[in-house]
């Protein structure tokens, strides 16, 4: 099974070859600004991704290790992608809201939990990581 998705205006569409079982939320300040809310991502390896209409995307290098892509016309937050070398290089995190049908994909993780505003939280029991824990795991040396 594969997953399809795309932006609000339809200029950019994509197909993911795998059927992702898990999604995860990121509460970091960059994801909150970029998505305009809570960014929920769906991980995909580079060779499992096919994008149509990629010339309608604009990418923004939000840090030294990742870029974020959005549609030039409608502004949909399509994906976060790791640009730094290493084991995660090229990995995409598609915006779960841009997937046409999430099916049974379950939210299993939350990153930067210490940056989450106090006024909301998810009911799902997830593996939560603080800023220090995330940095220890992902940040380049
Ligand atoms: Zn669009
Ligand atoms: Zn984030």
From TrEMBL:
Keyword set, alphabetical order:
Lyase, Metal-binding, Zinc
Q: InterPro entries given for it?
A: CENP-V/GFA (IPR006913), Mss4-like_sf (IPR011057)
Pfam families attached here? GFA
Ranges of residues in domain CENP-V/GFA: 3-121
Task: Indicate the family of this protein.
Answer: Belongs to the Gfa family.
Protein name, UniProt field: GFA family protein
């Amino acid at each position: 099974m594969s997953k399809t998705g795309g932006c609000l205006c339809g200029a950019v569409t994509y197909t993911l070859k795998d059927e992702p079982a898990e999604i995860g939320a990121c509460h970091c300040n960059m994801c909150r600004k970029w998505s305009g809310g809570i960014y929920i991502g769906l991980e995909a390896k580079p060779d499992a991704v096919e994008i149509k209409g990629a010339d309608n995307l604009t990418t923004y290098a939000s840090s030294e290790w990742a870029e974020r892509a959005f549609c030039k016309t409608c502004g949909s937050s399509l994906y976060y992608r790791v640009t730094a070398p290493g084991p995660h290089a090229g990995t995409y995190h598609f915006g779960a809201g841009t997937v046409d049908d999430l099916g049974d994909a379950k939210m299993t993780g939350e990153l930067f939990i210490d940056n989450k505003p106090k006024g909301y939280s998810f009911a799902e029991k997830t593996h939560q990581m603080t800023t220090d824990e995330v940095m220890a795991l992902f940040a380049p040396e």
